[in-house]
């Protein structure tokens, strides 16, 4: 059983490793569902982690159809990831009709090798998950991160199980979104997944003594300077214990 933890900052990455994660998916901007982190952050994390580091390649939030400038930025970010010796990259590009953009995805995968490549939850926005599954296999993705085209993986567990069945080992299917201590066993049991993706999220209090409480998030309703996102290592340990109990015993 492989445990991947999404990390949105350096502390989260360190805590994920402390908890025994097999790899992290390193992102920025949790409010956007994850975008490409800074090269400085990638470099520091690579220097201090001995587990696999997969980096999100996503130039902005919003949809997954990119213009030529954004596509060029994705290529440049992949090049930088190779220079920084990460283990994998994570991306997905769609056509306006809801299909996988096979041409561009194939080009990015070829550019990324020998790094591992995951198709992220752009997959969940495709018009036909089984068509998208075959397209992802055709262009060379190693795995798909998906919630089964539902808000949470437990809601999409039937589709997750069918995707795993149809993939037949040609590509890994990794459930993500709402995978936590309460849901992980049902998700693994009902889908047959061998990899899971979780945030294992926790929050710590800022070390700031002075606080201007009149401003939060520098004016953004979503921000909070004094509540810092991280990962709880014990949740990571618990996820492994719970998932492996089902995986190895079927109970």
Note the topology.
Layout: E1 2-7, H1 10-18, E2 23-26, H2 39-48, E3 52-56, H3 68-83, E4 88-91, H4 102-112, E5 116-119, H5 129-139, E6 143-146, H6 157-167, E7 172-175, H7 184-191, E8 195-198, E9 201-205, E10 227-231, H8 233-249
Parallel strand pairs: 1-2, 1-8, 2-3, 3-4, 4-5, 5-6, 6-7
Antiparallel strand pairs: 9-10
Helix pairs in contact: 3-4, 4-5, 7-8
Subcellular location: Cytoplasm
Family: Belongs to the CutC family.
Keywords: Cytoplasm
Uncertain runs: none
Strand order of the largest sheet: 7-6-5-4-3-2-1-8
CATH superfamily: Copper homeostasis (CutC) domain
Distance between the termini: 15 Å
Number of helices: 8
Mean pLDDT: 95
CATH class: Alpha Beta
**CATH architecture descriptor name:** Alpha-Beta Barrel
* Named CATH topology: TIM Barrel
Radius of gyration: 18 Å
> How many strand elements?
10
Q: What overall form do the CA principal axes indicate?
A: globular
Taken in chain order, the helices and strands follow as: EHEHEHEHEHEHEHEEEH
Q: Tell me the helix content.
A: 25-40%
Given helix and strand content, the structural type is alpha/beta
For the report, how would you describe the main beta sheet?
8 strands, parallel
Total domain units: 1
Fold and architecture overview:
The structure is a single chain. The chain is an alpha/beta fold and 251 residues long. The chain has one domain: TIM Barrel, CATH 3.20.20.380. The chain is built from eight helices and ten strands. The chain has helices at residues 10-18, 39-48, 68-83, 102-112, 129-139, 157-167, 184-191, 233-249, and strands spanning 2-7, 23-26, 52-56, 88-91, 116-119, 143-146, 172-175, 195-198, 201-205, 227-231. The strands form two sheets. An eight-stranded parallel beta sheet has the order 7-6-5-4-3-2-1-8. Strands 9-10 form a two-stranded antiparallel ribbon. The model has no long low-confidence stretch (mean pLDDT 95). Belongs to the CutC family. It is found in: Cytoplasm. This is PF03932 family protein CutC. Keywords: Cytoplasm. It comes from Dawidia cretensis.
């Amino acid at each position: 059983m492989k445990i991947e933890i999404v990390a949105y900052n350096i502390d989260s990455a360190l805590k994920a490793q402390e908890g025994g994660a097999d790899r992290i998916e390193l992102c920025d901007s949790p409010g956007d569902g994850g975008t490409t982190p800074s090269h400085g952050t990638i470099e520091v994390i690579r220097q201090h982690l001995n587990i696999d580091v997969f980096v999100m390649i996503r130039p902005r939030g919003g949809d997954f159809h990119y213009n030529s400038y954004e596509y060029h930025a994705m290529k440049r970010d992949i090049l930088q990831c190779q220079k920084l010796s990460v283990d994998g990259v994570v991306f997905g590009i769609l056509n306006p009709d809801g299909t996988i953009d096979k041409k561009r995805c194939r080009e990015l995968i070829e550019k990324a090798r020998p790094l591992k490549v995951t198709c992220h939850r752009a997959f969940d926005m495709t018009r036909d998950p089984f068509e998208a599954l075959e397209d992802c296999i055709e262009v060379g993705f190693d795995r798909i991160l998906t919630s089964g085209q539902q808000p949470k993986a437990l809601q999409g567990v039937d589709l997750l199980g069918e995707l795993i069945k149809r993939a037949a080992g040609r590509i890994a299917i990794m459930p993500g979104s709402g995978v936590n201590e309460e849901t992980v066993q049902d998700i693994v049991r009902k889908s047959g997944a061998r990899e899971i993706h979780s945030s294992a999220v926790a929050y710590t209090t800022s070390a700031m003594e002075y606080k201007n409480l009149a401003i939060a998030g520098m004016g953004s309703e979503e921000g909070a300077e004094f509540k810092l996102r991280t990962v709880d290592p014990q949740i990571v340990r618990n996820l492994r214990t719970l998932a492996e109990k089902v995986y190895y015993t079927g109970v």
